[in-house]
Amino acid sequence: MNIPDLPFFWAVIPAAGIGSRMRADRPKQYLPLGGRTILEHTLDCFLGHPQLKGLAVSVAQDDPYWPRLPCADDGRILRAAGGRERADSVFNALQLLAARGADAADWVLVHDAARPNLARVDLDRLLAELADDPLGGLLAVPARDTLKRADADGRVRETVDRSTIWQAYTPQMFRLGALRQALDDALRTGVAITDESSAMEWAGYAPRLIEGRADNLKITRPEDLLWLQQAWVRKR
Ligand SMILES: Nc1ccn([C@@H]2O[C@H](COP(=O)(O)OP(=O)(O)OP(=O)(O)O)[C@@H](O)[C@H]2O)c(=O)n1
Ligand SMILES: C[C@](O)(CO)[C@H](O)COP(=O)(O)O
Hints:
The chain is an alpha/beta fold. Helix content is about 30%, strand content about 25%. It has six helices and eleven strands. It has helices at about 40-45, 85-100, 120-130, 175-190, 195-200, 220-235, and strands spanning about 10-15, 30-35, 35, 50-60, 75-80, 105-110, 135-140, 145-150, 155-160, 165-175, 210. It has a seven-stranded mixed β-sheet with strand order 5-4-1-6-10-7-11. The chain has a two-stranded antiparallel sheet with strand order 2-3. Strands 8-9 form a two-stranded antiparallel sheet. Helix 2 (about 85-100) packs across helix 4 (about 175-190) and helix 4 (about 175-190) crosses helix 5. The longest helix has 14 residues, at about 85-100. The radius of gyration is 18 Å and the shape is globular. The two termini are about 30 Å apart. The structure holds cytidine-5'-triphosphate (CTP) and ligand LQXTBERG. Cytidine-5'-triphosphate binds near residues 20 and 218. It catalyses: 2-C-methyl-D-erythritol 4-phosphate + CTP + H(+) = 4-CDP-2-C-methyl-D-erythritol + diphosphate. It comes from Azorhizophilus paspali. Keywords: Isoprene biosynthesis, Nucleotidyltransferase, Transferase. Its EC number is 2.7.7.60. Belongs to the IspD/TarI cytidylyltransferase family. IspD subfamily.
């Protein structure tokens, strides 16, 4: 598929987490990777894409780091309010995009600030595969290890059939109106939502899984950043 055949899209980057599992001196999206912050690398995965209509990044209200980034003054980036949970941050960004003219039928791609290694080939594959899909879907990676279900005391109870198990990645791509409605309903009900797909599933939809690269990993714990820093040096 040529670039002009890829659909236009909006991007939402939730970046209002505190990174508690990272145990760093600042939220993980502001830690350095190859001389810049993780968040700047993540934004670069989208800025400059010819089909991008606009981008909103959700930032915590009292965040002292965001205003210091050169991209804070980038006119292409809208700042949305971070929320208590990731889903709140995403919902706020969708509201902002809608207020700025995004249509309910427009595609929106939600991507974690903490996933700076999204390959352009994965982004374009997601757009191409879902361009004609009525609903949308997400990048995901098939489970690659043997899976165990454990008892509370940490002993193996059984080996799980992994043939239908996938790990959910981002970006997750949905129609803005449908995603906003699903998140709104889920948040009002108080159901646990860890990604956009969960909200859509909860609303009764079956999002499509698009296989992506495993190295689009989310920096969650210190060893994730160490791994990525080494990969970054090898890549450049
Ligand atoms: N209230 C929140 C919580 C999370 N996020 C964002 O959602 C993404 C994925 O979440 P996760 O890895 O869980 O980040 P944190 O919540 O920061 O990490 P932790 O759970 O370890 O505190 C991150 O880019 C994070 O900044 C957000 O925008 N708003
Ligand atoms: C959205 C997500 O990246 C999909 O894997 C993930 O669920 C967000 O982080 P968390 O570790 O579940 O909070």
